[in-house]
Hints:
The protein has 189 residues and is mainly α. It has a domain at 14-136: CATH 3.90.1030.10. 54% of the residues lie in helices and 11% in strands. It contains 7 helices and 3 strands. It has a 3-stranded antiparallel beta sheet. A hairpin with a 6-residue loop joins strand 2 (114-121) and strand 3. The longest helix has 20 residues, at 38-57. It starts with 13 loop residues before the first helix and ends with a helix.
Amino acid sequence: MRHRNSGRRLGRNSSHRKAMYRNMATSLLEHGRIKTTEAKAKELRRVVEKLITLSKRVPQSAIDAAGPEEAGKLRAQRVHAVRQARKWVARRDILQKLFDEYGERFKGRPGGYVRILRVGRRAGDNAPMTLIELVEGDFDGTASASALDVATDASAVDAAPPEEVDADEADDDGDADEDADAEAGELTE
């Protein structure tokens, strides 16, 4: 029994799992959107949301607005937050982007910085695949996502280039194009 053991093991030992989260978090913060399995996306969400919360702790605008003595204390707190985030972000330029861009972007948002969208199943092992992406920074306190946002995200998934069908995977009657179109239709439903 796994009582009081949070998190998924994902078939990896702890050092491999930590390295995978670090690489995936860096990629998500760099590109804004990545495609991965559902279980990995749900675990990655925990890591990235903590990182963005760290970046919001002492924004650069607060340091600029503070007096000289208070600015020194705020800089020390910011350095501490940067060092904590460095544990999970592999590249310095992405760490800089996290604290400069994302800290200001999500300043007024009380959590929920990441969205997970299901996009279908992987061809080889039928694993559920998802897009994990950073949401827009504007937060008005009303409904979490409007129908327009959901429709826009669905069209972005549809706009992705279709997967190529290998000649070995084609049916005997040569309907590879029709099969690919049917699979693409299933992904959007």
